[in-house]
Amino acid sequence: MSSNLCPCGSQQSYGSCCEPFLVNASVAPTAEALMRSRYVAYCKGNVNYLVDTRHPSKRQFDDRINLIRSVRSTVWEYLTVVRTQQGGKNHTNGYVEFMAVHSQPEWGQLHERSRFIKENNRWFYVDGEMLPPILPKRNQPCWCGSGKKFKHCHG
């Protein structure tokens, strides 16, 4: 297993964070853990994991081809979990609000409130509500991670 930091932003090693989920050695114990591991699957192009962790009722015949296009055309930079509601080990549903920043095809952010359900002790992504971008105040650091003030970057 790898000792590099996990792309999900947990500050843990990839090998002790999301990798066990992506290689089917274990299942995500919480909705947030599943959301973080799905982000990593997008980063690493693990389409099978993305399909397998989507709720069966939401799977479409063209999911794989659409996901392949998405992972090939998007470079994800970092993930920020904004808040979670339920989604713990003893819950059967939960929500995770997050912001994910991408640099390709151009700089942008995905701000979503994702819905998860747990069936047979396994969490699944159901769907998500797109939210407006999270914009800092003018003199705060830009959301893209450039280190510049927002007003001098994407503001």
From TrEMBL:
Pfam families given in the database record: SEC-C, YchJ_M-like
Residue ranges annotated for the YchJ-like middle NTF2-like domain, each copy included: 30-128
InterPro entries: NTF2-like_dom_sf, SEC_C_motif, YchJ-like_M
PANTHER family linked: ADENYLATE CYCLASE-ASSOCIATED CAP C-TERMINAL DOMAIN-CONTAINING PROTEIN, UPF0225 PROTEIN SCO1677
Name this protein carries in UniProt: YchJ family protein
Organism (species): Leptothoe kymatousa TAU-MAC 1615
